[in-house]
Amino acid sequence: LMPAERLWPLTNEAIANRLFEEISEMEQALVERCVELLDQAETIRDLTNYHWWPQEAA
Q1: Which end of the chain is more exposed for a tag (fewer CB within 10 A), N or C?
Q2: Using CA atoms, how far apart are residues 21 and 18, in angstroms rounded to an integer?
Q3: Which residues contact 12 (CB under 8 A, 6 or more apart)?
Q4: Which sign, positive or negative, has the C-alpha torsion 18, 24, 27, 29?
Q5: Sequence-distant (≥ 6) Cβ neighbours of residue 13 within 8 angstroms
Q6: 1-58 residue pLDDT tens
Q7: Are 4 and 48 in contact (CB under 8 A)?
Q8: Within a 13 Å sphere around the CA of 57, how many CA atoms are in the beta-carbon half?
Q9: Looking at residue 3, what DSSP letter applies?
Q10: What would the 3-class secondary structure string for 32-57 be?
């Protein structure tokens, strides 16, 4: 898996088992979830930081 693929379960939490009348409602739910995830840097890092993945030079 690519590192970003491990984030799908986190984004899916916002839309799983919900009925949206309009696609814009689903989009808004996903946007809100992504904004929440911005404050969870450690969680994102833990899911996407593979030890073998090349690190960008600081």
Answers
A1: C
A2: 10
A3: none
A4: negative
A5: 33
A6: 677 888 899 999 999 999 999 999 999 999 999 999 999 988 988 888 877 767 776 5
A7: yes
A8: 0
A9: G
A10: HHHHHHHCCHHHHHHHHCCCCCCCCC
